[in-house]
């Protein structure tokens, strides 16, 4: 049957009159026709000028099972285009110009098993599409512009889904991923691993997938590609089960490793939101830890907490089960007193304990009775044991209830007038390391909003150590000393005020100093001192030798000292010839001595250093020069 309002229809009836197939292939058709018979089971819109699939374009075709809009010029698909196609089994949009696909529209097609997006312009598949493709058995994404696939998408198929290989082995999944510019890194590590498997429930249309990047892997087939620095995360928790008293503070910690560095996410098994303070830090590449702080835990905080570590190579989950200890007793009445009908609000059930603890008060109401009449005891709530062992007496609670005042818990009494005035809990800030050495560190802080001795717990441990150490002090002291620490070790310390909020700035990291004998400065000084001594010692010895030599020279014979003063003497020219005149005895003495004796006497008596006798001639007289 041909619809008169739509040209270009070439209807083809199947053997059964109730199964209608319609083909539209008019090249001049610009819009999806609206006069298609409502009992159509298979609709084919091929090789037309259609550029857009509008909203609810097929909503009246409730029996449509096969929809082919192939080899057109479609660039846009409205998210609600496939509304009311509950029984659609096959959707083919290949041969168009789609740059994106409304993956959320798959919710309108719960029976869909075949999705063909071959030969389009898709550049990515979002991770949110993974759970919507679980039932797809034929997915063709070939001949697009895909460079990677989300790890979550590969996790929905075996062997990454966790199902054994023997599970429903007849249920195969066919994937068409060829002719895409794949960038071979950790993001598609699972796809590369899948291509290397000989037996798997996932069948690739083309086994010879190749890398387009990075440069060192360009053109390399998947089954030959080797990826570096690609490690699936692993998660470790500080404990798997924790039981803590009602109203106490609890820290849950998990540590993860993997490459690239994983992301940590806290969730609850019951689906409730995690509305607690979470602190995370990555001390190095491939390592990350996270701590969730629960202050004043209530019954609603009990349950399973999941720490999920995720990177492009995979996902890992660890679970911590938290149990809250504490009971709420039922009302007690004295003997002989019959309880009246429940007209007062005093009995607290476990379901109401959270709000009762949060307000730290139990309101008691009862009917008005005469002063002399016997008034029945109103039900009271016993406060569960708290960590420091302090308990409230039931007599005091009863007295406060009779006085019309709400009973206060221990935290309220500790804080004094601060809690009754409605001021905020103390807040710790400006945490600093005031002093540190090899085994001791002094922490100082500034407290705001406190007037009394509010308990303060210091939780500290080595940076990667799972064993925590605690130290209790008071907020008002402003400082605390952590002793017995390991030298040359990185530590982390968190300050937690009882009943106060926990924030990231209440934690501080520090490193202890090295022992004095091992400090680099000491080693340097020892080396420099040794070199200086080796150089200075010979100089000192040489100087001492010089001094000793000078001292020895000063201790010479006195005669030599006296003669040294006469070293330079002026001699006169003496004649050795005998004189005739006898003026004095002295001249006669020289005249009578032989010349050689005169010479010897003259030289020896003056001790000249340099003496010589020159003879000018035989006729001239001799001269002695000094």
From TrEMBL:
Occurrences of domain Ig-like (ranges): 233-323
Xref: SMART domains: IG, IGc2, LRR_TYP
Disordered as annotated region, ranges: 330-432
Sequence ranges of Basic and acidic residues compositional bias: 402-413
Stored Pfam families: Ig_3 (PF13927), LRR_8 (PF13855)
Keyword Transmembrane on entry: yes
Domain of life, source organism: Eukaryota
Regions crossing the membrane: 524-545
InterPro entries documented for this protein: FN3_dom, Ig-like_dom, Ig-like_dom_sf, Ig-like_fold, Ig_sub, Ig_sub2, Leu-rich_rpt, Leu-rich_rpt_typical-subtyp
Compositional bias of kind Polar residues: 357-378, 390-401, 414-424
This protein's UniProt keywords: Disulfide bond, Immunoglobulin domain, Leucine-rich repeat, Membrane, Repeat, Signal, Transmembrane, Transmembrane helix
PANTHER family: LEUCINE-RICH REPEAT, IMMUNOGLOBULIN-LIKE DOMAIN AND TRANSMEMBRANE DOMAIN-CONTAINING PROTEIN 3, SYNAPTIC ADHESION-LIKE MOLECULE SALM
Protein known as: Info leucine-rich repeat, immunoglobulin-like and transmembrane domains 3a
Species whose genome carries this gene: Scleropages formosus
